[in-house]
Specification:
Layout: E1 11-16, E2 23-31, E3 34-40, E4 45-50, H1 52-61, H2 67-79, E5 83-87, E6 91-96, E7 103-109, H3 112-136
Antiparallel strand pairs: 1-2, 2-3, 3-4, 4-7, 5-6, 6-7
Protein name: Protein PAXX
GO molecular function: molecular adaptor activity
Amino acid sequence: MDHGSFQTKPTYCTLVNQNDSSKYVCYSHTKAGVFNIGLTNASEVWSTDFTEEALAKHGKKFALKSAEDYSSKIRLACGNGGASVSVQEDAAVLHLGASPDSLSVTLSRMSEPEGTAELRDLLFRMAESLAQQDIVGGPSSDSPGKSPFKRNTGFEPRRQLNGPTVTARKRLPGDSLINPGSRKKRPATGVAFDDNDDL
């Protein structure tokens, strides 16, 4: 694994545990040349570090070529409900798949002062990530150059894609709205009866 492939953007995803439906935040990032995977239920924190050599050894077993591959596998497993957590006394095992030979990572429970500091750092990293997305104009999954604001075209008139274009005729004053080809009729003024016709 080359040194460039060891770098990765921070990733964050939520995980609903298959075993007991408890919720976790799973995250990964690279700091000072160490790739870190962490897990928290907002009160306890579990974490593990991978040096470049350890990640390469682990990656060879599960066909992962880079730290980015590792992060993508975590996001995918969390997103499709394939991730689960087994909490032990001083560790937690993150399973990224249902089969026994699926990728699993053992994370150590962080003690109280370090765990609190890690939660604080995680909160600020997530806030900075959201702020950067707002500045850039949306999540990184959007294509560059596209507006993050998509128009809702559900109530717009449909346009004719092929064939001759029909231009609307301008309505002249006095034309009927119901029957545009005819002029409006003037209202009746009444009938004049002569008294002489009765004789």
